[in-house]
Amino acid sequence: MFQFILKRLGLAILVAFTVSFISFSLLFLAGDPAAALAGETASGEDIEALRHLYGFDRPMMVQYGDWLFSALRGDFGESYYFKLPVAGLIFDRLSITMTLGVCGIAFALLTAVPLGVAAAIRPNSLIDRIALFLSVAGQALPSFWFGLILVVVFSIKLGWLPPSGTATWRHFIMPTIVLGYYAMPAIMRLTRAGMLEVLSSDYIRTARAKGAPEMRVMFKHALRNAIIPVVSLAAVQMGFMLGGSIVVESIFALHGAGYLAWESIGRNDLPTVQALILIFAMFYIVFTFLADVLNAWLDPRMRSS
Amino acid sequence: MTHSVSLKMTIAALALSVAAGEAMADKASGTLYAGFTKELENVDSYFNSSREGVVMQRAIWDGLIYRDPITNEYKGNLAESWTWVDDTTLEFKLRQGITFHNGEPFNADDVVYTVNFVADESNGVKTQRNVNWMKSAEKIDDYTVRIYLKEKFPAAIEFLSGPVSIYPNEYYAEVGPSGMGLKPVGTGPYKAVEVVPGQHFVLEKNENYHDSPKGQPSIEKVDIRTIPDVNTQIAELFSGSLDLIWQVPADQAQKLEQMGQFTVANESTMRVGYISMDAAGRSSMDPNPFTDVRVRKAVNYAIDRQAIVDNLLKGKSILVNTPCFPSQFGCVQDVTVYDYNPEKAKALLAEAGYPDGFETDLYAYRNRDYAEAVISFLGEVGIKVNLKYMQYSAIRELNMKGEVPFNFSTWGSYSINDASAMVSQFFKLGSLDDARDEGVAADLATADTSTDPATRIEYYTKALQRITDQAYWVPLFSYNTNYVFKTDVDYTPTPDEVLRFTTMSWK
């Protein structure tokens, strides 16, 4: 197990390094940070002066090496746009994104797994149909549209929830639903499919035959096995939520890390984008790793492999 | 496309739900809640280049001079009076008894420190053009100060009434731009009491505001939140937690107006939309039709600008025939005007050897719908145009290398009411100059630096006439801004696109 973890860690570092290098080269090719920095009223000479001041005129490898060396010491540099240390800038916003991501995945799991199980127990029943409808709707509804509908209904018509911002926990309710709903269908379908497969397997028949109570069969025997792929999927979804909640953050004016990433790309704010890409990549790596550990716990067969 | 459809559907949905909505932010609370779309990088006005930054700058700080946005008359603000000692030296008598928000008294030291700090290029003021005409400042006595210019610069007064605000020397020396950005201190009508970057700013009325031409603030408190999505801003307005939003797209403003629940005010801005053409043949396009004046004229004739204004921009937008905004000093309107005439365009194209038109790329960074309208008008006379929709900075970079044959762009002149802020930016052989007309550049050089207004007008006229005769650009129209606010807010927007909290009041 320890060796397995070490191997995974080494791989993770390599992935993070590759991601940072590729993103750095892409950003390097994509645009001129000096022009973005100077703003639209700047003249050609202003831009040239800024380019030299920030060292954008040096070769790419030198700039990358510089960045990597500082990043390894935890210094992500100063944002070109905000003129503030990137680490602090991201830290402030990450807490919003993390809160949203955790709430979103919790919402998705708490609705999708019971629905998936219920749908699998009674396939083609009314509850299965409802679950199917919800998942199709979840896939089809763009989150910006769904978010606005919620705002119209709950903020404007009913006046129950604030439309945007982060001041209280009530501000997070609608964003959580929108973000979680997007991840829900896949989790539910996977739970349903997994449960259906497991329920028709021999050991479930055996468990039932030896007279185990139905609840115990469902949750101890069936769900435990059916949930394994769901854990892996949820980990990926979680990474996606943390890095990809841009639309939701924008609609609900949450000012989290996803929105910061999106805006920073437009502003050519290289240090911020670089650091965010690295952090998002790390999220994926950490969550996949945690999912592996969790799966190994759920399924002893995985521990040996 | 899907986005604009969704906007319309949202508006429709919002319209259906007008009935509800209790007011939280209103007159009774004494706080005016406003929404901004863009996040401000730094409240320190020398270190941001956005419109929102200008709004904050005018509220928190003062300049030596003030320009009345209606009459365009210059009045003393922190300065009581000023005189030109010679062509490159300005002397100011400062107003006495003014204090900064932190209690620091205002005097000549503050002016000297601020000017010397911003004029030093290594301090990295973001928009160099706003400050790089100043060489230095010198204290004569506690309330007399001189500003030395690098060279003759007649627009100095205009710049001093705009982007150049005076900072408290002791405080600024201690905290620098980043400290100033988080805890701004000025002499202005509003004090910044809370700054949460990216989220909101709270301004509070400056009870001790001096007798400034800006007028005395009336609204106690202003809370500005950053809400990137226009639909969310409108939802906040409906739910009662915002009192005022601005820069609302025309179609939404129109619908909001029809509902009758809010005041919708429209005002023109100095931003001019234009199309530049590679007349000098710098791009790799071969053959390059734009080097032929007949083709450039044909392009001018082919676009029905009035139709674009009437159907897309609406509001107080006007047709612009010059590469500058008509209110700017020196932006004479006695120029060649190309009215919509597709037949003439086709004839000119045939004459130039393109009877079946030609194919080219149009670069654009905003208002995709306007660009598409232009493309369809050009299509009607046989010019097949492919749209290259990119980030502003990316196009600008290509343009500086001379690789953009055909460019739909805009220029806001930083609200500076002088033609030099626009035409001279693009026609003085700089890297963005696609015409590269030496005669024009020479005339502009004279006009920009002469201290005699009549001479300036004479040379701007020459330059602008030559530019329009040669049809180097297609000047299109001016932009407008929609302001939407609750009916208990009293506010009249000004044509310079600056939101002024000082002139707002509760009804």
TrEMBL record, chain A:
PANTHER family: ABC TRANSPORTER PERMEASE PROTEIN, DIPEPTIDE TRANSPORT SYSTEM PERMEASE PROTEIN DPPB-RELATED. The chain crosses the membrane at residues 94-118, 130-156, 168-187, 226-255, 275-298. Keywords: Cell membrane, Membrane, Transmembrane, Transmembrane helix, Transport. It comes from the Bacteria. It is found in: Cell membrane. The gene is appB. This is Peptide ABC transporter permease. One of its GO terms (cellular component) is plasma membrane. Belongs to the binding-protein-dependent transport system permease family. Residues 94-291 form the ABC transmembrane type-1 domain. One of its GO terms (biological process) is transmembrane transport. The keyword Ribonucleoprotein does not apply. It is a multi-pass membrane protein.
UniProtKB/TrEMBL annotation, chain B:
Gene3D superfamilies: Dipeptide-binding Protein, Domain 1, Dipeptide-binding Protein, Domain 3, Periplasmic binding protein-like II. CDD domains: PBP2_NikA_DppA_OppA_like_10. One of its GO terms (biological process) is peptide transport. It is found in: Periplasm. Coiled coil: none annotated. Keywords: Signal. It comes from the Bacteria. The keyword Signal applies. Residues 1-25 form the signal peptide. This is ABC transporter substrate-binding protein.
